[in-house]
Amino acid sequence: MTIDQDEPALTEDDHQEEDTSRALVIRGELSGLPESLQDKIFALHRRISLLLERRQGSVVQFASAQREREGSKIVLELAKLTAQRLDRKVLLFAIGPVPYALPNGAGDPSSDESWEKSVRGGIVLEDHIHSIEGTSLSFCQIGSSVETLPAILDNPKFDTFVNVLRSRFDMVLVDCPSMADSTIAARIASISDGVVLIVDAGKTRWQVIKNQIREIQANRGSVLGVVLNKRRFYIPEFIYKRL
After folding, report:
1. What confidence score (pLDDT) does residue 96 get?
2. Domain containing 132 — which CATH number?
């Protein structure tokens, strides 16, 4: 099963403001994306829902194929759009450091020690989940650094912890470190309903992507598909659509 690489793709023109993404703050409103780009991201949601047969409590992982978390902006906007357009309870579950900040007034991220205790007990503490005011979107971040994550994620009760999240939300979108920087996305792939790889066009060889897919599958994970990001149209896009 694959996600069509054309519709969700983000073009160079769509990313002319991309350098500001590292200062992103999660807010309830949409972030001023062009409507055409919002439609492409929402199309990604529809395809994922169809692949997962619209089951409740879906857990979907996202990871960039190349270094750094280039796909985090897509996951963030997907979470906002799903919560706003469908009024579904959505959790954006960030693993490790991310290029966006907690919403205003949400307080400081929970400590790694607090997360470890929570996962060990198979419970979700209210202090870990931050609701975005005026929306059905929530956010949490686990692991202040990549180095502290293995002790949390390798706990045998991490599966139980994720199932608690399933029971509380209609959809959990897991923003993982990139496949090129870390093995985290692959090592926890079995706890999700599927993994979506985000690939920057022209940056990563398909042989590398195939190896990453095999790594996910070796960890009993299911790859839903690939989103081709920052694709450049050397021929006007409307001509592609007519062919």
Report:
1. 86
2. 3.40.50.300
What's the pLDDT at 3?
43
Residues 6+ apart with CB under 8 A from 240: 6, 233
Angle at which helices 35-51 and 72-86 cross, to 10°? 80
Domain that holds residue 230: 35-242
123-178 per-position pLDDT tens digit: 777 778 888 877 899 998 887 677 778 888 888 888 888 998 999 999 999 999 99
Q: What is the pLDDT, as a whole number, of residue 196?
A: 94
Which helix (DSSP H) or strand (DSSP E) does residue 159 occupy? helix 158-168
Cα 38 from Cα 182, distance rounded (Å)? 29
C-alpha span between 27 and 206 (Å, rounded): 35
**111: DSSP letter:** P
Q: Is residue 122 part of a domain?
A: yes
How many domains does the structure of the chain reveal?
1
119 three-class SS: helix
pLDDT tens digits for range 78-112 = 998 888 888 889 999 999 888 776 555 444 566 77
Contacts within 8 Å (CB) and 24+ apart, 46-54:
47/3, 47/4, 47/7, 47/8, 47/225, 48/3, 48/194, 48/196, 48/224, 51/1, 51/3, 51/194, 51/224, 51/225, 52/193, 52/194, 52/224
In a domain, residue 233? The reply is yes
